[in-house]
Amino acid sequence: MFERLQAFIQSLAASRTESAFAPGDPRVAFAALCFQVMEADGTVSQEEQRHLHDLLRERYDLDDDKLAELVDAGREAGHEAVDYYRFTSDLNRHLDPDQRVELLGVLWDLVHADGRRSEMEDHVIWRIADLLGVSSRDRVLQRQEAQARSEPEA
């Protein structure tokens, strides 16, 4: 009986693909939150996807293979999640308060990548900000700055 249980557990472990990005990795948490924000309005635009890839590539200095791995890990983690706590708690352990505010700015940039902002995206970022301990004032300032960055220069 014990051998059968042990074999079953080993088969589960063997069936999982090895990834450079463990579930508790803050990069996966960040990518998962990006997917949560992008999917909040029900559509993920090409502009949002392009922005996410550029953002992750630059932020973490990834080659194409590692980028694809991180995107897949973030997408999978985001789809498995029932709330944002798992990701924000990982990020809270790795980021200082200023970096958390900066992260919100990045999420707002992602919202504005397609030129549209929805109430659902606002709500998701509000929840994430709350869990990260970012003040309403800083959340709104980051939103305004992202909106200004996204407007075409005259």
From TrEMBL:
Residues 28-143 form the Co-chaperone DjlA N-terminal domain. Pfam families: TerB. This is Co-chaperone DjlA N-terminal domain-containing protein.
